[in-house]
């Protein structure tokens, strides 16, 4: 089977030659330098993060105080306190 209807149109696209003219010279183009701008909010966050890094993860004074209370038997926690903390953490969604 021969289909001649669309062939001349397709081949006509490849046969047509386009005239390409030379590019015109443009004026000198100067590049812009990159500029970085940090917002005041970002600067505040950066300052806060630096301050947090300086704070120790473990409060040695508090650990020593609790260790001393445990050793002397002065550290008392009631069952009600434990149950209250467990229920509160479940309600708050922390557990």
UniProtKB/TrEMBL annotation:
<feature type="domain" description="Anti-sigma-28 factor FlgM C-terminal">
    <location>
        <begin position="34"/>
        <end position="88"/>
    </location>
</feature>
<protein>
    <recommendedName>
        <fullName>Negative regulator of flagellin synthesis</fullName>
    </recommendedName>
</protein>
<dbReference type="InterPro" id="IPR031316">
    <property type="entry name" value="FlgM_C"/>
</dbReference>
<dbReference type="Pfam" id="PF04316">
    <property type="entry name" value="FlgM"/>
</dbReference>
<keyword id="KW-0969">Cilium</keyword>
<dbReference type="GO" id="GO:0044781">
    <property type="term" value="P:bacterial-type flagellum organization"/>
</dbReference>
<keyword id="KW-0804">Transcription</keyword>
<dbReference type="InterPro" id="IPR007412">
    <property type="entry name" value="FlgM"/>
</dbReference>
<keyword id="KW-0805">Transcription regulation</keyword>
<keyword id="KW-0678">Repressor</keyword>
<keyword id="KW-0966">Cell projection</keyword>
<keyword id="KW-1005">Bacterial flagellum biogenesis</keyword>
<comment type="similarity">
    <text>Belongs to the FlgM family.</text>
</comment>
<dbReference type="InterPro" id="IPR035890">
    <property type="entry name" value="Anti-sigma-28_factor_FlgM_sf"/>
</dbReference>
<dbReference type="GO" id="GO:0045892">
    <property type="term" value="P:negative regulation of DNA-templated transcription"/>
</dbReference>
<keyword id="KW-0282">Flagellum</keyword>
